[in-house]
Amino acid sequence: MNRALIYSSALCYGGSAIFAGFATSEFLHPVAGINPAWGLLTAAAFMAASGLVLQGFWRTQHEVLLERQSRIELLDAQLSQQANAVDSLADGLDIALFICDSKATILYANRPALQLFRFSDPVGRTLLAVTLSHELEQLVLEASQTQLIQHAELSFAYPADRVGLAKAWPHDRAKRVFLSVYDITDLRRLERVRRDFVSNVSHELRTPLTIIRSMSETILDDPGISAAKRGQYMEKIMSEVDRLALMANDLLVLTAAESQAVTKAPVDLAEVFRGVTDQLLPKAREKGVDLRYSGPFAMIVPAHAEQMRQVALNLIDNAINYTVQGRIIVALSQEGACFVASVNDSGLGIASDDLPRIFERFYRVDKGRSRGTGGTGLGLSIVKHIVEAHGGTVLVDSSLNVGTTFSIRLPMLEIAEGSASEES
Ligand code: ADP
Questions:
Q1: What mean pLDDT is predicted for residues 271-296?
Q2: Same domain, residue pair 272 and 326
Q3: Could you give the number of structural domains in the chain?
Q4: What atom of ligand 1 comes closest to residue 382's alpha carbon?
Q5: Which residue has the CA at smallest separation from atom 20 of ligand 1?
Q6: Separation of 314 CA from ligand 1 center, angstroms?
Q7: Where are the alpha helices (DSSP H) in 288-419?
Q8: How far from chain centre, in Å, is Cα 370?
Q9: At which of 56, 88, 120 does a domain end?
Q10: Which atom of ligand 1 sits closest to the CA of residue 319?
């Protein structure tokens, strides 16, 4: 009951009491000789009593109202707290979640769902409009119609090629359907990489093993084989055995780089890169390639010395292998808090189509040329794994028939004082 109603009823009530009191005493005056003033007095007393009663009633009502209001506010606050908790729980999951109605119109979507389908405001739109997936829409409709859980592994073309494990389940009689989509793109890609890796290793092993077997058979089956021929075959067998040993070694290095956490210690990477350059100078000179080191005398970086030597060896050896004639510069510098090493050659270069794939295991631009250089096709994968395990990055910049630059960046703590530039 509100205040205006109480006041107006009090007013009417008071008015009627005065009128009734006055009329009664006016009527009784001639009959019983009662003074009309008594009637007015009685009415006033009645009014005062009613006012007190009404005031008491109003106070009680007001208190009840206040109490109810504060209870509602408390419940409101609790509800919005719970809603916030549910929202942040749903947003923190690694799964996209939707709530849809029976016609697959979206009623709710959590943050991963918005990110997966790159949509900012999906509520009120159809699942099809947001995901562009007929299969996903069908899954929700089936769950709604059959009231049974539906599962499917689906591929999404929009906004990028992705694979998701979708599950739709009916929630209540209102035919609302919950839908979850778990993004398994990376998982499937890893499975493919692993499958490809096993088939590549088998293939890489088969080639030298076939050569070794056929050469050995020829020597064994032909007792009259000339000493020169036999020597030639034996050399080929030896070189294929060396190749197998190299591959086994590279695979072990790759596995170690992949599975072991890097134990870093302060390493003078200038000494490491200069040392490898010196080591490979004879090979470069033999090919008529000018190989130079350009950088500080000392650069102390937290790293794994042996792994960084492997990185330098793979990059500089590749530069020599894929440069017919020309020059190679191994340069070291510091950029902000980063150690930067680059190996720049004026060699064959790499076509832009091949560039995204050269860090894949066993990927070679030219199989024949790689075999000729004794390469295993694992060198750049090893570089990438080691550098990334150090928290760094590898970049490649190349133009066909102009040359290639591989650069690695590593986080560094300090650089040796009094560094002096040196060329060798
Ligand atoms: P490989 O053992 O064949 O050298 P890598 O993993 O070291 O294997 O390199 C992968 C491929 O990248 C090579 O086969 C080669 O085609 C290309 N490549 C690597 N470095 C260079 C470079 N400096 N110049 C041109 N091509 C390169």
A1: 96
A2: yes
A3: 4
A4: 6
A5: 318
A6: 9
A7: 305-321, 367-372, 379-389
A8: 35
A9: 88
A10: 23
